[in-house]
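BUG: 3D viewer hangs when loading the predicted structure for this chain

Environment: internal workstation, default settings.
Expected: structure renders.
Actual: progress bar stalls at 90%.

Input used:
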Amino acid sequence: MKVFQIIILILFNSSTIMGTAASVLNIIGMWGVFQKCGQQPWKALIPFYRGYALSECAGREPEGRRIYFLGILTCVATIATSMLTDDSNAEIVVSIIAVSINLGYYISILKIYWGLIEVFDRRKRWIIFPALSLSFIINLVYGWNKKYQPQWNLQDFRDNEANYFSGAHARALDNGLTININERSIRNLFAKTYLLRDIHMYIKPGRMVLLLGGSGAGKTTFLNAVIGYEKANAEIVLNGSNVYKEYKKMKYEVGFVPQQDLMRGNDTVLRTLTDAAALRLPVDFDSGERRERVNDVMKIFGLLPIQKSLVDKLSGGQRKRLSIAMEFISNPALFILDEPDSGLDGVMARELMEQLREIADQGKIVIVITHTPDRVIDLFDDVIVLAKDTNRTGRLAFYGSIDEAKEFFGKDRMEQIVMSVNRQEEGGEGKADEYIKRFEQAVSV
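Structure tokens produced before the viewer hung:
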């Protein structure tokens, strides 16, 4: 392939005259679309990146990241195919790869234009144009016909983001857990994606707290930020000590039980807890103190009769109690559990939650995620409700007592509360933004 052809391919993603002409019209159309949507119009001139810029206008930024890389790979595959003139087998392999890349690119382009059609509030039949590789028609019409105007503007969205933080701050006390998460974000290619924002609360000692939220609302991300496993732009204070700044000391004060246990099946219950004591207890504990603590924990969780049993031979409920006991060995002030009743029947789940209630009654803070909260709701004091806002960021929709939550949402059951903040495409009512705003106003009064 000649150097001139390669340059044309990179600039316009086409090596034919017709394809290049369509690409030029596409760029002209994008220039107009970008002006209307608050995007910088000169970005239409940048190869590969212009597709990403269009995805931001369409509210399909993840797809934009995909086509950015897939566009580059398409160019590389096309150049490679043209250079393989003597090796037919290699040419076939490269061609198959190129077709696969192009397919992924094409699907992402369709999703972006589907979003753009929604932004301009047009009928979905417009999708036939990118489906026929005529996307430049949509760009030209939307970009330069004054009749077509976007429903929202990128600049307005960015201005809203700049004023997105409420400025709220929960006061840190010497006892209990104070959570001030300003943001938990990640950087994806050209954009900053917020996973959590503006979550502030104070939890008293001795409280058993339910953590609610639909799939993707940020529950696990929230817990990881609280315990310091994934640090956020936040201040987490437990009983007067900063979890982030004093992490080495505070890791003994925090117990976290994940949904999946990491126990060795060929160890006994006693050996499992002894090993946990060696890892979780401070180094100034001698062997006698460790043995005493292991025995105390086995009594609490009813594990003494099965202390010589292998982990692989335990029932589901016994295994759950053992995984909880491993974290409780350090006698933490904060105890967090991710679906501890998963896989248990109603009776066993109830017994397990009653044990957690007893732990909270000892002055501990217990935070629990469970997908069947209503069967044990009487054991909880408070509830945290996380929800995805319009920008798909995890926000605080409510924090307070169980009775206050029922009144706030106008629901009798916790599962109904989750459905009220879930997005409509997830089978919910899609009222997350409404409740987030209402709660923010309520606590600021």
